[in-house]
Amino acid sequence: MTSPDAAGKRGKRGTLLAIVVGAGLAILAWSQVWFSFEVSLGAQTFAGEVRGDVAAPAVMALALAALAVLAALALAGVVFRYVLGGLLTLVGAVLVLQSFVAVGNPAPAIAPEVTAASGLAGEQTIADAVAAGAVSVGFWPWLAVVAGAVLAFAGVLAIVTARRWPTSGRRFSTTSLEAADEMPENGQPAGDVRADAPAGSDQRVEQWDALSHGDDPTDAGGSRASS
C-alpha cells in the first residue's frame, strides 16, 4: 500500500514535470510554421507561410505564465497551491482556446503576409482572397492544443494533490524547535548548567570557610595553609 508521503511526492513531481512539458511544447509550437497559403489576387498568385508567433502570439505569454506558476508552486504552501493550480488550469484552457481560434480563422494571420507581398490594401478584399485561396494547417497548432491540455491537467493535478505535497522546511523547523526547547534563558544547554552548578556551590562554600578562619579567599596558598 502506498504511503501518503510517497503519494504526495509523486503528485508534486508529476505536476511540476507536466508544467515543464506543457510549457516546452507550447514554446516549440509557437516558433514553428502554422499555416501555408496560396492566394490569388487578379492575375497574381501569392504563396507564403505564417508562423505561430504571428498566428497566435499569446501562446508564448501563456507558456511563460505557466513557468512562473511552476516556480511559485515549488515553494508555495497548501492554500497557495490551490490558487496556483486553478490559475494554471485557466492558463491551459486559454492556450487551447487560442489555438482553436487561430486554426478556425486563419485569415487575420495570413492577411498581413498577403498585404506585404502584394502591396494591396483593404481588409475585406484581402480577407475574401484568403477565404477563396488554399490554406494548409500544419501540425504545430495541434501541438499547441496538446500543450494547453497538459498544462490544464497539471493544474487539476496540483489541486487534487496539493494537501499531500511534502513540505521541505518541516524537518528543519521541527529540529529547531526541539533545540530551542532544550535551551535555558541564559543561552546555555540545560545539561551544562546542571553540571556547573555543584562546582560553583562548592567553591562558594570554601570561600566562606576561608573568611571565617580569617584567610583571604583570593590567596590560594594562604587558604591551603590555614586548612
Q: Could you give the topology of this structure?
A:
Elements: H1 4-30, E1 33-41, E2 44-51, H2 52-55, H3 58-75, H4 78-104, H5 107-118, H6 123-132, E3 134-137, H7 140-161, H8 170-181, H9 190-212, H10 220-226
Helix pairs in contact: 1-3, 1-7, 3-4, 4-7, 5-6
Q: What's the gist of this structure?
A:
With 227 residues, the protein is mainly α. Helices cover 71% and strands 9% of the residues.
Distance between the termini: 75 Å
* Element-by-element helix/strand order: HEEHHHHHEHHHH
At the first level of CATH, the class of the largest domain is Mainly Alpha
Apparent shape: rod-shaped
Number-wise, the strands total 3
Computed over alpha carbons, the radius of gyration is 37 Å
Helix-strand makeup class? mainly alpha
How would you characterize the largest beta sheet? 3 strands, antiparallel
- CATH fold name of the largest domain: Butyryl-CoA Dehydrogenase, subunit A, domain 3
Q: Write the CATH architecture name of the largest domain.
A: Up-down Bundle
Q: Indicate the percent of residues in helices.
A: over 70%
Q: Helical region count?
A: 10
Q: Overall mean pLDDT score?
A: 79
Uncertain runs: 170-177, 223-227
Placed side by side, the strands forming the largest sheet appear as 2-1-3
The proportion of residues in beta strands is 5-15%
Overall number of structural domains:
2
